[in-house]
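Example (one chain per record):
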Amino acid sequence: MGFLEDKAGLVGKVAVITGGAGGLGWPITLDLARAGAHVAICDRDAAALDSIAAEIASHPVKSLLCHADVREPDQVERFFAEIDQRFGRVDILVNIPGGGFVAPLMQTTPKGWHAIIRQNFLYVLDTSQQAIKRMQAQGTGGSIIFITSIEAHRAVPNRAVYGAMKAAVTNLAKSLALELGAHRIRVNTLAPDIFPTPASGSDAFGLDPELLALQQRMAVPMQTYGTGGDLTGCALFLASDLSAYVTGTTLHCDGGTMASSGWFDWPGAGWVNTPPADTLAFLSRPE
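Predicted structure:
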C-alpha cells in the first residue's frame, strides 16, 4: 500500500451511497471501490443498477446493490437491514439524490412543494439517522457527505423551494457536525454547480454547441462544466482520513462559479459584472 492509500484509510471501510448508480453517484461509487472501500448502493433506477453490476463485481471489494427509493422510509429501513447482513457496519454515507422543477413560486402548489422537500431533504434525515446510529454503536467515527449544490449558497429564482432545501441540508450538516463531533463522526457537504449527466443531457439548456461553449467560457472560470469524474476526488477526500479534522463545512466543486458569482468573462471585455455597451447593442439588434 502506498503513502496516500495508507493516509486515506479507505481500504476495508464500508461506504453507503444513495443514488449510487446515477450520473453523479456512479463515478463516486466506482472510485470508492477502486480505493478499496466496500460499497452498498441503492438507487430507484433498476436499469441503472443492472448496468453497473458487472463492473462493480469486477473489483476485489464486497458490494451490495439494492433497488430502493430513498423517499420511502420503509425502503430505506430495508436497505440498511441488508447492509447489516452483508457488512455489519457503516463507515461512510454519501447522499446524492435531489432535483426539482422550474416554476415561479406563485405557479406551484403544496403537492409540488412536498415532492421537492421529500426528494431533497426528508430522505437525508432518514438515511442520516440510519447511518449515525450504526456509527455511534461502532464507536469508530465516520464520515457523512451530502451532495448539495451551489444553489444552497445563492438565490435561485423559479426554483425557490429547491434552493431552500439545499440550504436546509447545508445547515443540517453544520448542526450535525456539532452534535456528532464527540463521536468523531464528521458531516460535510459537497456543492457542485453545473454537472451535465446522461439524464440531463449535454444540451440541457437547449443551446447549440457553439452557444453552449460560449456560455461555459463566460460563466465558468475554468471554462467548462464539471463531470462526475471531477466530483469524485472531492468525495474521496471528504470520505477519507485525509479530511479527518474537517467537519461542518462545504467544499465547492464548481470550476470557480461560486467565486465568480455575478461576474462574467464577456468576449473582448474580460471579467465584468455588467454587459459592455457593444454587447447590449448586439443583443438588441433587430432580427
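Caption: The chain has one domain: 3-256.
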